[in-house]
Amino acid sequence: MKVTGKIHFVGTMRQVSDKFKSKDLVILTDEKYPQYINIQFTQDKTELIGQVNIGEQVEVSINLRGREWKSPTGEIKYFNTIEGWQINTAARANEIASERLAELPQAPFRLDDDDLPF
Questions:
Q1: Terminal C-alpha separation, the chain
Q2: How far is it, in rounded angstroms, from Cα 48 to Cα 23?
Q3: Which class is 2-97 in CATH?
Q4: pLDDT tens readout for residues 73-114
Q5: Domain boundaries, given as residue ranges, for the chain
């Protein structure tokens, strides 16, 4: 899945344990009713956030994660996380599109009066 919009907020690095770190990024979507989407980046993916700036238009590839938690009293709750794994800026998206066009096979094209279908 992908989320597109402008970067609204960049959080600070959270070192949760020796083996786990995370950083949040909030995107303001470009739609009729804009939404503030909090996206969590973890481990080595936190470095991707350092390459973007507030206000920059981006496309973020995400995965939806969910988990169940049982309290000591037996109450069960469910939590969701939006986890980011790739960020493309508008400039990078244009580069990717250009690269894909360059990879398309180029057929020879010749227009003669005899080639017209009418």
A1: 45
A2: 10
A3: mainly beta
A4: 999 999 999 999 999 987 766 666 677 777 777 666 565 656
A5: 2-97
